[in-house]
Write a structure and sequence with these properties.
The structure is a single chain. This protein has 336 residues and is α/β, with parallel strands linked by helices. 20% of the residues lie in helices and 22% in strands. It has helices spanning 136-149, 166-172, 184-189, 191-197, 215-222, 276-279, 284-287, 306-311, 317-327, and strands spanning 36-44, 47-52, 55-61, 75-80, 90-95, 101-104, 114-118, 122-128, 152-158, 179-181, 204-208, 249-252, 259-262. Helix 4 (191-197) packs across helix 5 (215-222). Residues 228-245 have low confidence and may be disordered.
């Protein structure tokens, strides 16, 4: 049965009401030019604590950002309630371009990378000289991730009262990595924090290390005003919420223009996301020698031009050994 006549007009056509509202859908997104700037301090189950004008603000990611996730250290733009009062919620509408990214994967066969920290200047790799024994392969992996992500590495060796640092210093000496050696007594009295703090002023530094090396004790000594509870209930920064060992936390350095970013303890550091060709950028004294390398050279094969480059005196042989050790670290397990 025909409902309308031959000469129907648009006004004659009945339209079903939109149950979700009458506003038409559009792909045009608001620019939010008046959004406030903030920095992500921690992420907890979809809620992000951001620092906006020296006050903590709880926020969630806007739907328009899609699958793009904000991580600790991100510079973001926020709208909504920015008062920071209890039970208020702002929206993150934009994630600014990152200057550096620390990534890792679960293992070397995992194709899914996870961004741990954004916009950090340094990566402090904390390792004990004994109890537990140092794991050079894990240190190598952290170094590769730092070089690949644009972070400057800092090696922090703890428990020097149990073992001397000479062996590790010899192993990493050719890399010219700044380092700090501390003892258990210095960790307890705060002396270690004072010496580490000299390397942190004016920088955002992410701390990594596996269980038992003294990382949390050191972080607590560096930021006593934001001391973390080891049981997992944290948020001295925000005064609310919960922070567990499964997420990172950015803490401001006392009396210094800098940040300490504590990250969860790691058992492994997958490098599936790292392109080996980018690691050479951390060795400027060797990079010039790669011009004579064959295409897709792994820098550890008979035709590699780096051997001749070193033989001609352009670089120290120890540097080439260090490069090749780092490039090969993806093929080894951390316990090797």
């Amino acid at each position: 049965m025909r409902r309308y006549g031959k000469h129907t007009d648009e006004d004659d056509i009945r339209q079903r009401p939109n149950r979700k509202g009458n506003r038409p859908r559009t792909s045009i997104r608001p620019k939010h030019e008046d959004a406030a700037e903030g920095m992500v301090l921690t992420v907890d189950r979809g809620r992000l604590t951001c620092l906006v004008d020296d006050r903590p603000v709880t926020a969630m990611k806007a739907r328009e950002l899609g699958r793009k996730a904000a991580v600790v250290g991100d510079r973001v733009a926020l709208v909504g309630d920015l008062s920071g009062k209890k039970d208020t919620l702002a929206r993150i509408v934009r994630i600014e371009e990152r200057s550096s990214v620390l990534r890792r994967t679960a293992d070397d066969d995992d194709p899914f990378e996870r961004v741990v920290v954004a916009n950090a200047d340094q990566l402090a790799i904390v390792t004990a000289l004994a109890d537990p024994e140092p794991r050079p392969r894990l240190i190598d992996r952290c170094l590769v991730a730092a070089f690949d992500g644009g972070l400057t590495p800092l090696l922090v060796m703890t428990k020097s009262d149990l073992a001397p640092p000479d062996k590790l210093l010899e192993l990493y000496g050719a890399l010219d990595i700044p380092y700090v050696v501390t003892s258990r007594e210095e960790l307890e009295t705060g002396g270690a924090a004072d010496r580490v703090r000299e390397h942190l002023a004016g920088k955002a530094t992410a701390f990594v290390g596996h269980s038992g090396v003294g990382k949390t004790t050191l972080v607590n000594a560096l930021v006593p005003q934001e001391r973390r509870r080891l049981t997992g209930h944290v948020n001295a920064v925000t005064g609310r919420g919960r922070h567990t060992t499964t997420s990172a936390l950015a803490l401001p350095l006392a009396d210094a223009d800098g940040w300490v970013i504590d990250t969860p303890g790691v058992r492994s550091f997958g490098l599936a996301h790292v392109d080996p060709s980018r690691v050479i950028h951390a060795f400027p004294d060797l990079e010039g020698g790669t011009e004579g390398c064959p295409r897709a050279c792994s820098h550890d094969e008979p035709d590699c031009a780096l051997d001749q480059w070193v033989a001609e005196g352009h670089a120290d042989p120890a540097r080439l050994y260090s490069l090749r050790r780092l490039l090969a670290t993806r093929e080894r397990t951390e316990g090797d």
